[in-house]
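Memo to structure team: turn this sequence into structure tokens by end of day. - J.P.
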Amino acid sequence: MSARVPACQLLERQQDNYAALWVIDPPMDSWLADQSEGVVSGNQGVLNEWAAKGKQAHNPFERAVGEPLGKEVVLFWPKAHQLGIWWLKWLCEQLPTGTSIEIVGEHQGGIKRVPKILAELGMPCDKRDNARRCSLFVTRTAALDLASGNGASDSAWQRFEAVGVTLESHPGVFGHGKVDEGTLLMLESIDSCLPNKPLKVLDMGCGDGIVSAWLAQRGHHVTAIDVSAFAIEACKRTLAANGLAGRVLHSDVFSALEGEQFDWIISNPPFHKERDISYGPSQRLINGAPEHLSAGGRLVIVANGFLPYPEHLQRAFQDFQTLADNRRFKVYSAIKPSR
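Reply from structure team:
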């Protein structure tokens, strides 16, 4: 089997150099999963793929500082540069100073900025290879300033206020450092629809926890899930910052819920996978929602107006309504029949 993703194809040219390869924040690629010994990723789908092949798979918030990685470590540079900087700092904290690490990524994803970023962090940079519109750099971990008493990577967290709650945001989490217009429209549209009695609500794709905190403030019992470990950590911190309770689970759509049912499911579902439009997670959300709603339960989602969700809602629920439409975003509601 050959590599499919361009950045992995560039690594395939170096494969004779790897004996115990660990990959950090990689894309899904079967060749890479077969080639590597383990993975550290915030994406639950990636962790599931590696684990299914019997490989070690961890999210970065589960690993203790100093827990060993393999002899060869490759970081896949993310499109969110601040997240890439966070990964570099995390690796510097995890690995002994002077440990060699490689960084690979696509030119259109910003890999060309890496030499400047490394220089700003006091880390060396050598270019190893260039092909498939990708580049591969080699650097070494550096001793970072930990005088604050917290890990250097902890400085990436950003706290701000919105809709009456305190939010904790991290690079790479949807809407980092700001409130999404579609989410605001959704909250406004359901404010008058929510009953006074406490509901069992699922916040699907919780991001930084804005919806979960807003609902918990109003007395509802919230379960928040997201495919991203960064979102899970952000949501936990947001709930804690507001003194609110909620269950937060790392899950690829409904995978962690085992048939559990809810009164409401609320979501601002993603439709991008890297730079491409992808309806996969949203379709799985809509198609799986009836199974995870109690009789008379409601699904509420917000989406860009051009996305083809009405046809999916019609197929899954036989009927739906539009709660709000500001020409950019639409909020849809569908109810599971009582019988």
